[in-house]
Design brief:
It contains eleven helices and seven strands. The protein is α/β, with parallel strands linked by helices. It has a single domain, classed as Arginase, Chain A. The chain has a seven-stranded parallel sheet with strand order 1-2-7-6-3-4-5, with helices on both faces. Strand 3, helix 6 and strand 4 form a beta-alpha-beta unit. Helix 7 runs parallel beside helix 11. This is Acetoin utilization protein AcuC. Pathway: Ketone degradation; acetoin degradation. Keywords: Acetoin catabolism. Belongs to the histone deacetylase family.
Length: 395
């Protein structure tokens, strides 16, 4: 084990997280969380790990990024019916029983993970129930009621962290977190997502640079539909490490949505579970390189509930814990039996891999593909604001 491995890590998990349930056939089904923890347990990833329960976040903590009037609306919504405003009662964000309590618990989980790092009890912490990055100051959006990512970052800023980098690898633009810190030069928000011309929420263009006094702290890399592992990783490597090195964060927060997968029903990127594993390992390395090893990892989107999310996030848990799972590891029979009962007509993969090669050719300044165009546009918009040369691949 090398010197950068074996860092203290905390895993926040409580079955009560399953109460964030938008009901019916809503895509954000909490079974994905249950199946992830079951798979990680069956594979031994969580052996000897004390899972840390969360307490619901206090209203004062949620109000770091949300209006009190919005919290009142969330509390009242289950009794008020469907036409309650604030983005509540829509197809994306239906009203459900104990909505405030379940949403506050998700925020509490991310805060618990943040506290473990701030206190020095852990260098890394993960809460797969978190990552609800679309919620805005006064309304719900994109399956997200409260923005746990933004609350955790706001709290960490008050604990003495002066520079925090947030990297969002969900297929959808991390718009809520960007909005929360658009004018704050202490927070670098980086979002790699499907091009907004082809996917909701329609934001996340390179020209969204940050507000007055914070220019350059909002980074958007908009990737064309069909982008796969090698091209995604090439684009990431051509933009994100240089910006993180220039910003010099004291802590890395990541939203690790897995709806970038080629089988995800809600979007059009083409990553694999192997690509996700490579992304997590790269984020771990960057946390060590640029942030003293401090890494807060959160979940996010992911709607292929049986075949993708459990495997991808088991790799995430394993990466945070330095218990990397080999890609060719077979899926445990007990887990397969349980998952098969949930949908007998849905064939399951046999291993923790999709059989994809994740090697890529580093970007060298060429603009030969749509992905290269995206890289060029982001570099030209952002790099000069950080003293970097957008046309020099060494930067």
């Amino acid at each position: 084990m090398d010197a950068d491995r074996g860092r203290k890590a905390a895993v926040v998990w409580d079955e009560s997280f399953l109460g964030y349930d938008l009901g019916g056939d809503h895509p954000l089904n909490p079974v994905r969380l249950d199946l992830t923890v079951r798979l990680a347990t069956s594979l031994g990833v969580l052996d000897g790990v004390d899972l840390i329960p969360a307490e619901a976040a206090a209203e004062a903590e949620i109000e770091r990024v949300h209006e009190p009037s919005y919290l009142n609306a969330v509390r009242a919504a289950p009794l008020a019916g469907w036409d309650v405003g604030h983005g509540l009662g829509t197809a994306d964000n239906p009203v459900f029983d104990r909505m405030h309590e379940a949403s506050a618990l998700v925020v509490g989980g991310s805060l618990t993970a943040a506290r473990k790092i701030a206190s020095g009890e852990a260098d890394r912490a993960v809460s797969i129930a978190g990552g609800l990055h679309h919620a805005m100051r006064d309304h719900a959006a994109g399956f997200c009621v409260y923005n746990d990512c933004a609350v955790a970052i706001s709290w960490l800023l008050d604990q003495g962290f002066e520079r925090i980098a947030y990297v969002d690898t969900d297929v959808h633009h991390g718009d809520g977190v960007q909005a929360a810190f658009y004018d704050d030069p202490r927070v670098l928000t980086v979002s790699l997502h499907q091009n907004p011309l082809s996917l909701w929420p329609g934001t996340g263009r390179p020209a969204e640079l940050g507000g007055p006094g914070a220019e350059g702290t909002s980074v958007n890399l908009a990737l064309p539909p069909g982008t796969g592992d090698a091209a995604w990783l090439r684009a990431f490597e051509a933009t994100v490490p240089a910006l993180l090195r220039a910003f010099r964060p004291q802590l890395l927060v990541t939203q690790c949505g897995v709806d970038t997968h080629r089988e995800d029903p809600l979007a059009d990127l083409a990553l694999t579970v192997d690509g996700h594993r490579a992304v997590y390992r790269r984020l771990r390395d960057l946390a060590v390189e640029v942030a003293g090893g401090k890494w807060l990892a959160l979940g996010g989107g992911g709607y292929e509930l049986l075949r993708v999310v459990p495997r991808s996030w088991t790799h995430l848990l394993a990466t945070v814990l330095d218990r990397d799972v080999e890609p060719n590891a077979p899926l445990p029979a007990d887990w397969v039996a349980h998952a098969s009962r949930l949908d007998p007509n849905r064939p399951l993969p046999s291993s923790m891999s999709d059989g994809s090669e994740t090697g890529f050719t580093p970007w060298g300044g060429e603009v030969d593909t749509p992905v290269d165009v995206a890289v060029r546009d982001t570099r030209r918009a952002l790099f000069p604001l950080h003293g970097l040369d957008p046309d020099d691949p060494r930067d």
